[in-house]
Design goal:
alpha+beta; Structural Genomics Hypothetical 15.5 Kd Protein In mrcA-pckA Intergenic Region, Chain A; five-stranded antiparallel sheet; 2 helices
């Protein structure tokens, strides 16, 4: 699954276009590397999202194409959350 789609499906970012812009704006890294929106996410990847004064790191647990809002958090687990 593409990174931008995973961020939208998991509801870490609400819109896919916003997820694409975040990746292009170098605010999203996977396993410590800056990646493009088309990066293929794998189970076990560590994704770090930085917005404003906040950074969130999550580990990918599952890759489901369609998930309801109640199950979106089953796709990842929060590793670290920090404010600057």
């Amino acid at each position: 699954m593409r990174l931008d789609k995973f961020l939208k499906v998991s509801r870490l970012i609400k819109r896919r276009t916003v997820a694409q812009d975040a990746c292009k704006g170098e605010r999203v890294t996977v396993n410590g590397r800056e990646v493009k929106p088309a990066y293929r996410v794998k189970v076990g990847d560590i994704i770090e999202i930085t917005f404003h004064n906040r950074a969130t790191r999550v580990r990918v647990k599952a890759l489901d194409e369609h998930v309801g809002a109640g199950q979106a958090d089953t796709l990842y687990e929060i590793v670290d959350e920090a404010g600057f």
